[in-house]
């Protein structure tokens, strides 16, 4: 009912660009994931923290995959975030599109990001799941029967 406009995560230390609009449950999951999983992964793979998250879509009142018909997307509830890449403290950009099959450190980092996301979110879709997700990671907190999770 009252979404948050997100300019940064982790008490303002990680910029979100462009700013995102998220509902409280999604924002809490993203913030904790950044602090407890992504930043340690960045330090392990690159020796420096993430300074910026490059998001591609947050709240957007639309159907899944932007189609004219079908089920309503979790983006329509502010429960989803699409991440296209990360910018490290030194300015290096690691994108899902190039890094997924890029340098070994980029591949390792992005796969760690996806794997840890699968532990925090109910849906994680990325490269290999379908053509619509080849250039980003989709994360959402959709409540499903029996606690079902989708990680692709």
3D architecture notes:
The relative contact order is 0.16. The chain is 29% helix and 29% strand. With 152 residues, it is of the alpha+beta class. Helix 1 runs antiparallel to helix 3. The radius of gyration is 15 Å and the shape is globular. The protein is built from 3 helices and 8 strands. Strands 1, 2, 3, 4, 5, 6, 7 and 8 form an 8-stranded mixed sheet that branches. The model has no long low-confidence stretch (mean pLDDT 93).
Topology:
Blueprint: E1 4-9, E2 14-22, H1 24-46, E3 50-57, E4 80-88, E5 93-95, H2 96-99, H3 104-120, E6 123-125, E7 137-140, E8 150-151
Parallel strand pairs: 2-3, 6-8
Antiparallel strand pairs: 1-2, 3-4, 4-5, 4-7, 6-7
Number of strands: 8
Number of DSSP helices?
3
User: Uncertain spans, ≥5 residues at pLDDT below 50?
Assistant: none
| Biggest sheet features | 8 strands, mixed
- Measured between the Cα atoms of the first and last residue, the distance is 29 Å
SSE succession: EEHEEEHHEEE
List keywords for this structure.
single chain; 152 residues; alpha+beta
Briefly summarize what is shown.
The chain is of the alpha+beta class and 152 residues long.
């Amino acid at each position: 009912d009252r979404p948050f406009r997100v300019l940064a995560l982790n008490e303002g230390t990680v910029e979100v660009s462009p700013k995102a609009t998220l509902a409280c449950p999604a924002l809490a999951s993203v913030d904790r994931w950044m602090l407890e999983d992504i930043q340690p992964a960045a330090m392990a793979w690159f020796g420096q923290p993430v300074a910026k998250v490059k998001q591609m879509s947050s709240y957007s009142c639309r159907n899944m995959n932007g189609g004219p018909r079908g089920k309503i997307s979790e983006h329509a509830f502010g429960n989803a975030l699409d991440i296209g890449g990360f910018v490290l403290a030194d300015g290096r950009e690691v994108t899902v599109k190039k890094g997924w099959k890029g340098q070994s450190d980029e591949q390792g980092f992005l796969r760690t990001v996806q794997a840890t996301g699968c532990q925090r979110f109910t849906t994680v879709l990325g490269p290999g799941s379908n053509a619509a997700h080849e250039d980003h990671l989709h994360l959402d907190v959709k409540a499903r029967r029996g606690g079902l999770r989708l990680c692709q």
